[in-house]
Amino acid sequence: MTHILNKIINISLFYEILSFTMTRCVINFQDKTLRENELNALRKQIEREYLEKVKLEDDIMEKMRSQLTLDKAAQYTKKLTGKKRDLTKQLVSYTVNACPLFAIHVSLKTCCSVKKHLCGSLNF
Predict the structure, then answer these.
(1) Number of folded domains in the chain?
(2) pLDDT at position 94 over 90
(3) DSSP class per residue in the chain
């Protein structure tokens, strides 16, 4: 009889240990699921922030490209204006040297233009 009683106690102890182990497994599985959900949420957040970072970098690069284009266009315009000014000076110099009457005409025209401007601003 004691032998049977010992077996019943052992079986009862076995089921108690089994029940405790299964409860711990369920708790661990729930904890694992919770951690996986947190990990997935963090991955999604990292992906969103990465995409935002890439977009900001692209915007900065586009702005820098645009500014560089504007700077190059300004330099080119300045260069062309300088060349035009030099060419005009050479042309006027050549024309004045080649034809003294033209020089007098240009001087008179400039004087008349200045006189009109001054009279217009003084309201004569």
Answers:
(1) 1
(2) no
(3) -HHHHHHHHHHHHHHHHHHHHHHHHHHHHHHHHHHHHHHHHHHHHHHHHHHHHHHHHHHHHHHHHHHHHHHHHHHHHHHHHHHHHHHHHHHHHHHHHH-HHHHHHHHHHHHHHHHHHHHHHHT-
